[in-house]
Amino acid sequence: MTFVVYLVVYLGLGTLVAIVLTRRESSPSERVTTALLAVVAWPLWAPIASFSSRDPETHVEDDLERRIHASLDEALDAVRGSPLEALLTEQSVGAIRASVRRAAMRVAELTRTVARNEAETSQTKHRIATIEREGGGGRTLVTARVHLDNLAKLSLLLANERAALLELADLCDALRSQLVLARFAGSSVDGLADLVDELDARVEGLDSALATVVSDVRAA
Questions:
Q1: Biggest alpha carbon distance in the chain?
Q2: The model's pTM
Q3: Residues 93, 44: one domain?
Q4: Looking at CB atoms within 10 Å, which of 68, 86, 172, 178 has the fewest?
């Protein structure tokens, strides 16, 4: 009786683990394999599957966001209580953080979307090639090409959004180092004003990009 209870509990936990892990897989075959391994050997398979499912690309935006926040924190510390404090206020930094958070969330969502579309992109290319090889065309071919073009645009949008975040992170690093230098070495603030203006422009660019995406989706 004890063995039966143990077996029921073991398989029950394995089923729960399988449900969680299979949600991360994109193809049916991967889901079946993960589910079977999770139910039968979940104490061993769950840690392995959890680790292997973490795609480094999906965490790029998190690393950039942390880097930006760290630079802003240090920049604020550098100007606090000094004549440079007017250049970078808590309020302006708060607005920057909010914009960065929205941008990072957008990049994360795009990353997941593009990852899900990888297999679909390959299938669509194969479908177009088959239609063309068989001499087909018409509306079917046009629709397939439009779909493939949309998938490519999503990948390009992700690359642009990620590049914008990277540029902003680099700019925050430069602003931080120049503020620290200005405070301790008494450097001129002329270059600082230019950096702050450029930072504001980049942040506005992030928000403009989000507004454009929302507008395009609503118009579609």
A1: 81
A2: 0.60
A3: no
A4: 86
